[in-house]
């Protein structure tokens, strides 16, 4: 067995052991895989690609899984035009907090809590963003926390609701919730653990979908130019039309809702294990298009994403890696068995 095959087998072991509580028969799966994709079957290798998505080596801290994937029909046709799916940003900045007209950079902090009389920041140091505790009023000013690329942030609201903001995301909320509503507005992605209050529903406002809950745990993803998704981990949520307020769907645990290109809300089963992984500091994709994986890497490492051949963006694979690792190690391992080439060139990830 050559070095590449040994590395592939290792990656398979790592992925399976991470995903499943009981260790599968990796040897049996590996033998089955080789039987289907052996080097003595040239016709098979023309129809199938073997994809490794992650790395070996504790220093790099990447882990991944090996999968096989049927090529998309027509993939052997002529080359298509280049496609830019994400732009590099010249200036990234820091997490910022805005209250009324005051704006403060939260450099060095990873969380803020609004539960006590004064604000408290992560790592046990006070966050000097408010001199007096918020008081209820008829028109409470909105506060905003915004994350740049490459950073996540945790917020604890005054009712005890916990929110994890992913990179390039923004959440707005009042200084004090009213007795009638707990309403926040989200752009980007966030994971919510909503404090239960049967008398005052919690509402997350988005561009196409609103989410209403009493107390639950869920993930919302609604970046600009992407179809919004809501995945429920615990409890129950209602999906509302953001324009009419009409209830479009009610989710049970392990279900997700999303808007199709026509704006229709659809419901399907969700992989809540995968949904939670970014909160745990992981990239995790299960049978995802390459374009989705590279856009997420680009958003985290502030790299543009360019496909020289746009057809490659729909190639599907499994991928998992620590977000604290170096992006070049992950790109290197993505190239192990991909027929096309992925490189970091300057401020872009380029797929040839």
TrEMBL record:
Span of domain Protein FecR C-terminal: 283-351
Xref: Pfam families: FecR, FecR_C
Region (Disordered): 123-143
Coiled coil, from the record: none
Signal peptide boundaries: none
UniProt cross-references to InterPro entries, sorted A to Z: FecR, FecR_C, Ferrdict_sens_TM
Molecular functions per Gene Ontology: sigma factor antagonist activity
FecR protein domain sequence ranges: 144-238
Protein name: Sigma factor regulatory protein, FecR/PupR family
Organism: Segatella baroniae F0067
